[in-house]
Amino acid sequence: MKKRNKYILLGIVILIIVGLGIFYMYPSNTTFKKAVLDRLDVADVSSIKIIKSGDSVDENEVNVTDPSEIEKILGTFVHINLSKSKLSNIKYNDSYWMTIETKSENLKYGITLFDKVYLKTFEYNAKIPKNQLQSYKITNDFDLTVIRDLFEK
Questions:
Q1: For residue 122, is it within any domain?
Q2: CA-based, 20 to 30 A from 37: which of 13, 60, 70, 102?
Q3: Residue 89 above 90 pLDDT?
Q4: Where is the chain membrane-spanning (predicted)?
Q5: pLDDT digit string (tens) for 95-142?
Q6: Which range of residues forms the domain containing residue 140?
């Protein structure tokens, strides 16, 4: 009887270890809408400051305060699919650093986009501090024209 209990206990321990391994190894997929926009009242956004930098350009900055432009910019990201990722040693040409400010909380989100391939989000005053900074790989194509056009003016 004791031997049987040991095998049952060993089986349970192995199942727990395998389950945890699968949980941590399997990438967590989400969308930009779920990761950011569902936590943000778009109507409350007062400005988006965007800094473009990279190999092909000197650092440029644009501050968008027009509500229709803000809606267009955020609409660009609505359909982006994301997979959690670690951003160590990524190679990129251009990056867009965006700071989203709201009327009620001032700084709300920081978003960095690396060549339409990686995205990093930072939630100021996050309720759960360990979820404050998230890194993602973008898993689908999207149109970045709205943001690029801001730097053409």
A1: yes
A2: 60
A3: no
A4: 7-26
A5: 999 999 999 878 889 999 998 899 999 998 888 787 788 999 999 999
A6: 29-150
Domain count for the chain, please give it. Answer: 1
Q: Is residue 12 part of a domain?
A: no
- Tokens 């965006």 map to which residue? 98
- Residue-level pLDDT at 97: 93
Looking from the CA of 74 toward its CB, the CA atoms found within 13 Å total 30
CATH code for the domain in which residue 86 is found: 3.30.1490
Q: Are 64 and 135 in contact (CB under 8 A)?
A: no
In a domain, 15, yes or no: no
> What string of H, E and C letters represents the secondary structure of the chain?
CHHHHHHHHHHHHHHHHHHHHHHHHCCCEEEHHHHCHHHCCHHHEEEEEEEEEECCCCCEEEEECCHHHHHHHHHHHCCCEEEECCCCCCCCCEEEEEEEEECCCEEEEEEEEECCCEEEEEECCCCCHHHCEEEEEECCCCCCHHHHHHCCC
Upper half-sphere CA count for residue 138 (Cβ side, 13 Å)? 21
Dig out the tokens for 143 from the structure: 């149109």
